[in-house]
Amino acid sequence: KKAEIYLAQNKPEAGLKAIKEAINLVQNNKYYYVLGAQLEKVNRNMEGAAQFYELMVKQTTDFQAYLVELATTYQAIGKTKDAIHVFEKQPNLSLDQNMKLVEMYVQESKEKNAVQLMETLLDKYPSDFDLKYQYANLLSTIGEPQKAIAALEAEPNKTAEMRLLLSNLYSGSGQSNAKYNLLIESFGDPEA
C-alpha cells in the first residue's frame, strides 16, 4: 500500500524501497512486480522496469494481462527478442497481444512469422475489418503488394482505410484503371 501512495505522490525512490520490502515478504504477487515496474518507469529507468517484469514472469503465474506492457518495456531497452520468447510461450494470447507479437516480429525482421500469425488471426476473427486492413498493410510493407491487393479486393465491404490503401497500391503498381474503377465504386457507395 505504501508503494502505491508513493507512486501517487511521485516519490518513486521511496516507492521502490517499499515495494522491494513487500516482494521480500510475498514473492508470488504479480501486482507488486507491476507496481515496481511502474515506479521504475516514473523514475525513467526502463532497465529497472524490465527487471521487475522478468521477476514477475519467473515468480508468478497468470501475468498475461501485462504482456503488452512487458513487451513495450523490453522494446525500449532493445530486448525485443526476449519479449517475443515470453509471448511465444503463452498458450492463449488475446487479439491485442497477438498484434503486439506481429509488431515485434516485423521489428525483428521475422516477416514470415508475422504474416503467418496474421493469417491465423484472420481465420479466428474473419469479420474484423481492422485486422484485414492491418494484414494488407503488412503485406504491402514487406514488399508483397500483389498479395495485399488480392486481400483487399476479396473484401466486399471495404472500409475507407481499405479503399485508400488499395488505391495507393493500385497507383504504386501502375494499375490506373483499377484505381479509377475503385474511385467510381467508392463514390457510388453512400458509406464511403
How would you describe this protein?
The longest helix has 14 residues. The protein is mainly α. It is 74% helix and 0% strand.
Question: What topology emerges from the helices and strands here?
Answer:
Elements: H1 2-8, H2 12-25, H3 30-42, H4 46-59, H5 67-76, H6 80-88, H7 95-107, H8 111-124, H9 129-141, H10 145-153, H11 160-172, H12 176-188
Helix pairs in contact: 1-2, 2-3, 3-4, 4-5, 5-6, 5-7, 6-7, 7-8, 8-9, 9-10, 9-11, 10-11, 11-12
Structural class: mainly alpha
Radius of gyration: 22 Å
Q: What shape does the CA trace take? A: elongated
Could you tell me the number of beta strands?
0
Helix % is over 70%
Report how far apart the termini are. 52 Å
What is the beta-strand fraction?
under 5%
- Average pLDDT works out at 89
